[in-house]
């Protein structure tokens, strides 16, 4: 669970009331409470104070309204010291009235609180003692009793006896007045009944119920019923549907109390999402969509910038339908438009077609028209989709032209099946339909057409229930929290499957009750119920807990085939996956004469696996298999009897294939059953089937057969049965899956052989698989070594299937080179490029703390471990100065250890400490840094348009010994030396810059910040804010002149950076330059040539 963020905000207005607001956020529950505070006179100082808590301490920003961020300066004073943040407004004016938001944020998220400030005109001071000029009852109505005296002095009242009498009158009126217990939000399932209740102490006839602005009739009907039972008032809404969702309110004596009703059975979703729009320059672009719920707040964005109503932008909503209109569009309006509703969004592209500018010269006019024939592109892209389990999912897109498309899920191509349908509606619209979706369908879906593609994410959620659902991994702590609102404080009773739970781990406060499980076990799974009671009644809540455990044991493990040096295994999935998807299987082997299990693989992704690298006969093996999920590995299952890794049918069957046939060869069985062999039956099995089918028979003297009834590029298994006069015998071991294609070859050699951890006895090698496997899967690798002074390469052990190996034993002091060969069914590859010669000696190693932080005046200890032979010589330095013992500094050095101790540390002791160890063979050093971070790495500018660009970078290689807290980003024009700060609170390593001036040159720089300050910046290369040049396949130009043009021919000439066309005309004209603003192109007509390139500066 994420650390809590606690936000306590207080608004203090001199000579007025003091109001406070407390907000507690615990992922995923966030509670917002709003207060209305009134400033009684203008000219006062309004102070907002916020207390924040969290790990780390959150930062705070202040907002007025939804969009305006308040900054230091003028009448605004903004401060933050530790966990306290303050906003002060000097000389408050009437225009300062409004909604103020305090937003607290750290790496775990953000929360906010809202306070309304109302500034009233200063009232005239009255004559001392003249209480009749002021309505004291109205004066004291909204004032904290502690502020009565201060409030009276503000109005010039010194008659405190009269003030106390007014106070007693106010108390008596409050006792006689009615009080209302506020109504609560309701969550109701389909066709259920929503009941809003309210307690009224004083009987009053002036009570009205509203839905939105519409008053609900008092008379009962088929939909609503208002019931009054003494002090209790109820509103019942029957047979609830999505149309009933909305804001409900009760009005008592002209005061309104509001709540919200939620319909739990219908998920908020886009009924009709946004669609891409293409308009001409100067026209109006329309975007609209329909939601499943009415009256939902929607935020519109243009390239991640929030939109508001303006001269050219109009935002409107009516019920479930929302609309955005952008009028008088220009090329600068080309963007992505996005609508955000809670945690959902829909986006579409706005494309603008530019106008062609024509230039008239003398009596001749050249008109240029372009028809662009581009690659197909998506006019409507896929949208991210969230579906409820068992629903049908429909992913749709539209193309610019009629071309075939391909669908992929997580990189694998999809084909039609019983659950998956791929359809094309007309020529351009394509859809992927997934029926009865489940969690297995979650992932990233991609549709491709030509060179363009569209990507969307599919998220599957569980069907909603009225209960709270929690999931926890076995062994992890779990705290169940149920908030409540009751007075007096309630007593809580927790039950698990209707059995009472011990009270030692129950914690009940004034607003919540919780039950803690220190370490979750499978027995903790199930339904929990909490019963809250006080003298007014009781309430219940339920929580369903699912404990994710390791998977159960696999079923029906058996040895299916044995080969020379290989054994094939098969099994079935476990009955229980532990509550989480099976991610793979672990296969192990053991020689029956040994007790140690050896890992064969921990990445088997299906219920069958062939263990290779076994000894060919003479050794019996046992095998075991276990399933694993994200929690861990389950209980293993062992084969029932040991087997030898050898073929049961003479030598192994050999299959030679080409694209039209497969030729098998075999040897007779070792035992003919006491009767001569009369023939052989060849059987085959499609890889996608489990059924073996006879393919052909051969006489006894033929030990080979060629099968032609096979399909190219399909994979088959083959096996052979011998028969005699008694009948057909058991089958031979089957071949591996054989693909019907041209003959295979040996693989390419492995690549990129690396080494690490050299010692006097061993070394660890790693390498990459070959680029080409020869048409057959890689069975293993052979590692070889060559000692200096010889040309003999020796194997370092048996072949292995992994791309790593620890080579041992080595002879200390000798030099060795290493190389690797890859094996497939055809044989061994050529060896890889050998490594350099490496000496078998113990390497020296130095380890030191990565960074420490201490307070001034305390002791600093910098311990280091140093290993190496012979014993190295140790040297400590700081800022290129050798450290020597003195009154404050001592150095303790003993075998394998060295420690610097600094007593009574000072701030000047901050910096980089380096320990250097040197012996006759090597040297090494390590350092501890307590400094500002270095510059960020790989600073890059991409996605450049005429108004925006995307900046990306990597964290600095040196963090200064302290965690990077944020990044500071700045920009300047190339012709200016002044840097302008874009943001100083960036948490991620990317930032989209907007509001650039078209065709202006910019330079950017980014710096990392830690607890010691802001480090050195990394600078970008200068960029010009303009669109990149487009790529087009065909361009047609039609030119006409008033006189002198007899004919023209257009010829395309290939070019690397431009598309060139030669225009042959029997006319000689002067230089004419045209600008076509949509593609930023220009045309230069000079004598007989027309060249289209990137647009220069006009």
Written overview of the protein:
Strand 82 and strand 83 form a beta hairpin. Helix content is 3%, strand content 48%. It has a six-stranded antiparallel beta sheet, with no helix packed on it. Strands 84, 85, 87, 88, 89 and 90 form a six-stranded antiparallel beta sheet that branches. It folds into ten domains: 72 residues, Immunoglobulins (Immunoglobulin-like); 34 residues, no CATH class; 88 residues, Sandwich (Immunoglobulin-like); 84 residues, Sandwich (Immunoglobulin-like), CATH 2.60.40; 84 residues, Immunoglobulins (Immunoglobulin-like), CATH 2.60.40; 81 residues, Immunoglobulins (Immunoglobulin-like); 82 residues, Immunoglobulin-like (Sandwich); 87 residues, Immunoglobulin-like; and more. The protein has 1098 residues and is mainly β.
Give structural attributes:
1098 residues; mainly beta; Immunoglobulin-like; 6-stranded antiparallel β-sheet; globular; disordered N terminus
Quick summary:
The chain has 1098 residues and is an all-beta fold. It has 3 helices and 96 strands. A 6-stranded antiparallel sheet has the order 3-2-1-5-9-8, with no helix packed on it. Strands 84, 85, 87, 88, 89 and 90 form a 6-stranded antiparallel sheet that branches.
Q: State the shape.
A: globular
Strand order, biggest sheet? Answer: 3-2-1-5-9-8
Number of domains: 10
Low-confidence stretches: 1-40, 123-134, 174-179, 260-265, 356-373, 920-929, 1030-1098
Q: What kind of sheet is the major sheet?
A: 6 strands, antiparallel
| CATH topology (fold) name of the largest domain | Immunoglobulin-like
User: Helix segment count?
Assistant: 3
Overall average pLDDT: 76
Second rung of CATH, namely the architecture of the largest domain: Sandwich
CATH class of the largest domain: Mainly Beta
**Rg estimate, integer Å:** 40 Å
Strand content: over 45%
CATH superfamily of the largest domain: Immunoglobulins
Count of extended strands: 96
The helix/strand class is mainly beta
């Amino acid at each position: 669970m994420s650390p809590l963020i606690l936000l306590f905000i207080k608004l203090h207005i001199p000579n007025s009331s003091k109001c406070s607001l407390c907000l507690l956020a615990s992922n995923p529950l966030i509670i917002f409470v709003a207060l209305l505070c009134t400033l009684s006179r203008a000219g006062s100082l309004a102070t907002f104070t916020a207390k924040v808590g969290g790990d780390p301490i959150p930062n705070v920003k202040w907002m007025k309204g939804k969009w305006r961020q308040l900054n230091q300066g003028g009448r605004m004073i903004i401060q933050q010291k530790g966990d306290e943040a303050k906003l002060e407004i000097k000389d408050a004016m009437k225009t300062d009235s409004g909604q103020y938001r305090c937003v607290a944020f750290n790496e775990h998220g953000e929360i906010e609180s809202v306070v309304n400030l109302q500034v009233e005109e200063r009232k005239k001071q009255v004559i001392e003692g003249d209480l009749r000029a002021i309505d004291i009852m109205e004066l004291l109505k909204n004032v904290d009793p502690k502020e009565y005296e201060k409030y009276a002095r503000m109005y010039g009242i010194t008659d405190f006896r009269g003030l106390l009498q007014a106070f007693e009158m106010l108390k008596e009126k409050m006792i006689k007045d009615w009080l209302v217990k506020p109504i609560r939000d309701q969550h109701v399932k389909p066709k259920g009944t929503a009941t809003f209740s309210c307690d009224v102490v004083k009987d009053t006839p002036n009570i009205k119920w509203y839905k939105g602005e519409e008053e609900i009739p008092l008379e009962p009907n088929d939909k609503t019923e208002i019931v009054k039972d003494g002090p209790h008032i109820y509103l019942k809404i029957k047979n609830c549907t999505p149309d009933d969702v909305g804001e409900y309110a009760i009005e008592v004596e002209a005061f309104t109390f509001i709540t919200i009703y939620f319909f739990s059975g219908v998920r908020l979703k886009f009924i009709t999402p946004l669609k891409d729009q293409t308009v001409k320059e100067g026209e109006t672009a329309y975007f609209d969509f329909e939601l499943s719920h009415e009256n939902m707040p929607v935020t519109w964005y243009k390239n991640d910038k929030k939109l508001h109503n303006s001269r050219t932008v109009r935002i409107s909503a009516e019920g479930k339908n929302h609309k955005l209109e952008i009028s008088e569009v220009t090329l600068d309006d080309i963007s992505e438009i996005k609508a955000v509703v809670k945690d959902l969004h829909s986006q579409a592209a706005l494309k603008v077609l530019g106008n062609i500018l024509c230039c008239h010269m003398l009596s001749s006019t050249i008109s240029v028209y372009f028809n662009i024939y581009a690659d197909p592109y998506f006019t409507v892209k896929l949208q991210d989709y969230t579906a409820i389990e068992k629903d049908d999912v429909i992913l749709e897109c539209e193309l610019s032209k009629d071309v075939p498309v391909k669908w992929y899920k997580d990189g694998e191509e999809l084909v039609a099946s019983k659950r998956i349908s791929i359809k094309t509606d007309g020529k351009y619209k394509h859809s992927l339909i997934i029926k009865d979706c489940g969690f297995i369908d979650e992932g990233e879906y991609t549709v491709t057409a030509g060179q363009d593609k569209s990507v969307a994410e599919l998220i599957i959620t569980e069907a909603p229930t009225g209960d709270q659902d929690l999931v926890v991994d076995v062994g992890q702590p779990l705290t169940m929290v149920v908030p409540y609102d009751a007075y007096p404080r309630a007593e809580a009773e927790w039950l698990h499957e209707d059995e009472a739970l011990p009270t030692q781990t129950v914690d009940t406060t004034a607003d919540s009750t919780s039950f803690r499980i220190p370490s979750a076990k499978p027995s903790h799974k199930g339904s929990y119920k909490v019963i809250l009671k006080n003298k007014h009644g009781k309430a219940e809540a339920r929580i369903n807990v699912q404990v994710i455990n390791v998977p159960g044991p696999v079923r029906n493990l058996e040895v299916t085939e044995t080969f020379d040096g290989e054994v094939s295994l098969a099994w079935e999935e476990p009955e229980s996956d532990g509550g989480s998807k099976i991610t793979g299987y672990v296969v192990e082997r053991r020689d029956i004469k040994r007790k140690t299990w050896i890992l064969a693989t921990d990445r088997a992704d299906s219920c069958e696996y062939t263990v290779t690298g076994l000894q060919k006969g003479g050794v019996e093996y046992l095998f075991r298999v276990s399933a694993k999920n994200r929690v861990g590995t389950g209980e293993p299952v062992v084969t029932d009897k040991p087997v030898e890794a050898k073929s049961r049918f003479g030598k192994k069957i050999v299959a030679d294939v080409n694209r039209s046939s497969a030729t098998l060869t075999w040897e007779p069985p070792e035992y003919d059953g006491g009767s001569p062999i009369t023939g052989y039956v060849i059987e085959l099995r499609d890889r996608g089937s489990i059924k073996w089918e006879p393919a052909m028979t051969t006489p006894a003297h033929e030990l080979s057969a060629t099968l032609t009834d096979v399909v190219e590029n399909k994979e088959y298994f083959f096996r052979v049965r011998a028969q005699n006069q008694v009948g057909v015998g058991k089958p031979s071991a089957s071949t591996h899956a054989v693909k019907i294609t041209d003959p295979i070859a040996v693989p390419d050699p492995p690549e990129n052989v690396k080494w690490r951890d050299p010692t006097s006895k061993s070394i660890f090698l790693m390498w990459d698989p070959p680029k080409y496997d020869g048409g057959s899967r890689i069975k293993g690798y052979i590692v070889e070594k060559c000692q200096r002074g010889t040309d003999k390469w020796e194997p370092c052990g048996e072949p292995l299937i992994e791309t790593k190996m620890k080579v041992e034993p080595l002879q200390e002091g000798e030099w060795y080179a290493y190389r690797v060969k890859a094996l497939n069914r055809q044989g061994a590859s050529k060896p890889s490029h050998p490594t350099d010669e490496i000496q078998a000696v113990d390497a020296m190693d130095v380890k030191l703390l990565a960074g420490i932080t201490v307070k001034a005046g305390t002791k600093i200890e910098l311990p280091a471990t140093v290993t190496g032979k012979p014993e190295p010589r140790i040297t400590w330095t700081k800022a290129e100065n050798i450290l020597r013992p003195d009154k404050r500094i001592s150095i303790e050095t003993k075998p394998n250890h060295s420690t610097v101790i600094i007593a009574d540390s000072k701030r000047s002791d901050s910096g980089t400490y380096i320990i250097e160890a040197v012996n006759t063979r090597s040297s090494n050093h390590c350092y501890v840094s307590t400094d500002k971070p270095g510059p960020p790495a790989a600073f890059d500018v991409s996605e450049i348009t005429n108004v925006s660009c995307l900046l990306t970078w990597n964290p600095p290689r040196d963090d200064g010994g302290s965690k990077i807290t944020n990044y500071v980003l700045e920009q300047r024009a190339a012709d200016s030396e002044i840097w302008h700060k874009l943001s100083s609170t960036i948490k991620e390593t990317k930032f989209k810059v907007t509001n650039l001036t078209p065709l202006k040159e910019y330079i950017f720089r980014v710096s990392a910040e830690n607890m010691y300050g802001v480090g050195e910046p990394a600078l970008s290369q200068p960029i010009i804010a303009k669109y990149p040049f487009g790529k087009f396949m065909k361009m047609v130009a039609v030119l006409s002149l008033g006189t002198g043009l007899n004919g023209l021919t257009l010829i395309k000439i290939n070019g690397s950076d431009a598309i060139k066309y030669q225009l042959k005309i029997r006319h000689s004209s002067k230089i004419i330059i045209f600008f076509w603003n949509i593609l930023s192109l220009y045309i230069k007509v000079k004598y007989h040539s027309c060249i289209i390139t990137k647009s220069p500066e006009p």
